[in-house]
Write a structure and sequence with these properties.
Elements (H helix, E strand, L loop, with lengths): L5 E2 L13 E5 L14 E5 H4 L14 H18 L4 H14 L1 H14 L3 E4 L5 H7 L2 E2 L3 H8 L6 H12 L5 E5 L5 H12 L3 E5 L10 H21 L1
Parallel strand pairs: 2-3, 4-5, 4-6, 6-7
Antiparallel strand pairs: 1-2
């Protein structure tokens, strides 16, 4: 499996305290060692969400998981720096407010397009498809193989090609950071069959924007593609 992103949140000691630090990782348990110092608390997202090694690691594409992680980060920061509880609570409230459009876009897609058949070249989209109520029909064996950097089984390639040629798929979601000849072929086949192709990424793009702005832009693109297909 490809390496999963590791996020170090801005350290509270940079702004408030000289003795507190929260290190957040979505990675596998085996990659974690002890905290580098006694003031560092590690939040393992997989453990928090009850997810075992080997599952789809793109947790940040699930809005419920995002909410759980943000809440736990707030609780952990308060536990290691209780004197600044008011500050952390305000930051938490502000962050939740800034996620409002993200949550609303997901709700809008679910309301208007639940059950719509879509495809994806990789399982990076699986959590968001579930959250928006879209019917992700791509062969799991194909998506998982691409995610792990392997060649998909021949049968899954044929199945995927048949799906894209069936006229039933509204959108193909394409991981722009995993480009292979096979995924490019699927992208071309989708275009040839009038299927809108929506690009998404595993990491924040461009890297200087916020998490909210990144996912808002992807969701708006997805919603526009679904609207275009419905209107066509």
């Amino acid at each position: 499996m490809k390496a999963t992103p590791r996020l170090r949140v801005p350290s509270p000691r940079q702004t408030i305290s000289s003795s507190t630090e929260l290190d957040t990782t979505v990675g596998l348990r085996t990659s974690l060692g002890p905290a580098s110092n006694q003031g560092c608390k590690i939040l393992n997202v997989a453990d928090l969400l009850g997810q075992a090694n080997g599952v789809n690691p793109h947790f940040w594409y699930d809005p419920d998981y995002v909410n759980q992680v943000v809440s736990q980060m707030k609780n952990d920061l308060i536990s290691i720096d209780p004197s600044n509880t008011t500050y952390y609570q305000k930051q938490y409230n502000d962050l939740n407010s800034s996620l409002g459009q993200y949550q609303q876009l997901i709700a809008d897609i679910r309301q208007n397009f639940a059950g719509t058949k879509v495809a994806a070249t990789e399982d990076i989209f699986a959590y968001l498809a579930n959250a928006t109520g879209l019917d992700l029909i791509s062969p799991p064996a194909f998506m998982q193989a691409v995610a792990e950097g392997n060649d998909p089984p021949a049968q899954s390639i044929v199945q995927f090609q048949t799906q894209l040629q069936s006229g039933n798929v509204s959108v193909l979601v394409y991981n722009e950071q995993t480009v292979t000849q096979i995924t490019e072929n699927m992208k071309t086949l989708a275009a040839q069959n009038g299927i809108s192709v929506v690009g998404i990424t595993e990491t924040i793009q461009p890297p200087n924007v916020s998490f909210q702005a990144w996912l808002d832009a992807e969701l708006i693109t997805l919603e526009n593609a679904l609207n275009a297909r419905a209107g066509g």
